[in-house]
Amino acid sequence: MNAVVIYLKLFWTFFKIGLFGFGGGYGMLSLIQNEVVEKQQWISNSEFTDIVAVSQMTPGPIGINSATYVGYKAIENSGMARTEAVCGSLLASFSVMLPSFILMLLISAFFMRYKDHNSVQTVLKWLRPVVVGMLAAAVLLLLNEENLGAFNKDNLQLYVSIGLFALAFVATYFWKIGPIKVILLAGLFGGIFYSLI
Question: Is the dihedral of CA 148, 93, 16, 131 positive or negative?
């Protein structure tokens, strides 16, 4: 496939994701998965799961981190050189940020002036459930065999995954342990556990 065509597809795909990715990075996950795994088939579902895990642990927003990785892999998988793949990662990252940048420039000029207006408050009330729905879609998207295991294949991985999920939920929600500590502890526990079996 022509390099220009792939770059244009990357730009348009991540521009759309950035434009409609309400709810931040986690709200974008279902959009990213639909576009890059299902439609464009730039990466596999397993690679997407890995992207999400790495993007959560690296500094920066998850949507931009995901775009950077997918941009690189899309160009690399098409057979182009690594320098072109780096350009793909930069283009995807820029594309996903561009709509937010443009919208914030436009909105900030008017929001402070009209934020207490009834119409603005009504729109914000309607957007809140949409954001919650997109976050729920991201959670359901990650409840797959690559993350949890399956009953008929590897019961041990499934039980360990459910146990880690439950402990992480209790640790963050009830014990108020910070997410960075929870990620590090889960990685340490998982590394020790899987090295022993």
Answer: positive
Nearest CA to 74 among 40, 28, 29, 39? 40
Domain ranges of the chain: 3-115
CA–CA separation, 38 and 31 (whole Å)? 10
- Span 67-119, pLDDT tens digits: 998 999 889 888 888 899 999 999 999 999 998 889 888 888 777 787 788 88
Nearest-angstrom CA–CA distance, 51 and 71 = 12
- Locate 179 and state its tokens: 């997410």
**Angle, in degrees to the nearest 10, between helices 45-57 and 62-77:** 140
């350009």: which residue's tokens? 87
Q: What is the 3-state secondary structure (H, E, C) of 64-113?
A: HHHHHHHHHHHHHHCCCCHHHHHHHHHHHHHHHHHHHHHHHHHHHHHHHH
Query: What does the alpha-carbon distance between residue 61 and residue 194 come to, in Å, rounded to a whole number?
Result: 29
For residue 18, give both structure tokens. 């950035």
